[in-house]
């Protein structure tokens, strides 16, 4: 399979916008990959993401690791910084860096809980809100350094947040 393209096959006409070619039932679509960008879909058309509906986060050398929605913003965890997107309409969307010293090292540890993003970074476990970044694992930071030598560390770690009990729990290989 070609990873830079996807195929749509249909026997039913009129289900796609734009319509598929009537002479051939398959349609090859190109996809554009931007590692530091996020696309917005058209209203009520979640699969329709025009090329110009993209918001760039940081420099083109960044890669977005995880996006966490908060009540009034989106938090972007990248491989070289934490960013916040705010704004109430598309024309007023603004992306600002919250902390450029943070690297999100284990994507599956990043979750939203209690209107904050929590997850593992190179600095330890962080809590990211609209107002900034706070290290919350100072008392147990020595535990992380021992397990980070495992080559599968990034994919084996998982985090979960419980709003009702105000907890963030992280699982790591031992």
| Helix content estimate | under 10%
Strand order of the largest sheet: 5-6-7-8
Radius of gyration: 20 Å
**Main beta sheet: strand number and arrangement?**
4 strands, antiparallel
**What is the H/E string?**
EEEEEEEEEEEEHHEE
Shape: globular
Mean pLDDT: 84
**Which parts are unreliable, with pLDDT below 50 for 5 consecutive residues or more?**
none
Distance between the termini: 37 Å
β-strand percent reads 35-45%
Number of helices: 2
Q: What structural category arises from helix and sheet content?
A: mainly beta
How many strand segments?
14
Structural overview:
With 174 residues, the chain is mainly beta. 6% of the residues lie in helices and 40% in strands. The protein has two helices and 14 strands, in the order E-E-E-E-E-E-E-E-E-E-E-E-H-H-E-E. It has a four-stranded antiparallel beta sheet with strand order 5-6-7-8, with no helix packed on it. Strands 9-10-11-12 form a four-stranded antiparallel beta sheet, with no helix packed on it. Strand 13 (158-162) and strand 14 (167-171) form a beta hairpin. The two termini are 37 Å apart. The model has no long low-confidence stretch (mean pLDDT 84).
């Amino acid at each position: 399979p070609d990873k830079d393209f996807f195929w749509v096959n249909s026997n039913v006409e009129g289900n796609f916008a734009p319509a598929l070619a009537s002479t051939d039932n398959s349609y090859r679509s190109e996809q554009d990959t931007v590692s530091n960008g996020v696309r917005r879909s058209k209203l009520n058309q979640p699969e329709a993401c025009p090329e110009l509906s993209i918001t760039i986060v940081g420099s083109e050398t960044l890669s977005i690791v995880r996006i966490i929605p908060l009540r009034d913003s989106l938090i972007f965890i990248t491989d070289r910084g934490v960013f916040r997107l705010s704004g109430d309409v598309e024309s007023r969307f603004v992306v600002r860096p919250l902390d450029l010293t943070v690297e999100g090292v284990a994507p599956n540890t990043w979750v939203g809980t209690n209107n904050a993003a929590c997850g593992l970074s190179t600095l330890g476990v962080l809590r990211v809100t609209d107002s900034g970044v706070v290290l919350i694992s100072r008392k147990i930071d020595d535990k992380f350094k021992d397990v980070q030598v495992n080559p599968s560390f990034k994919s084996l770690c998982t985090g979960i947040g419980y709003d009702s009990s105000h907890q963030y729990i992280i699982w790591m290989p031992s």
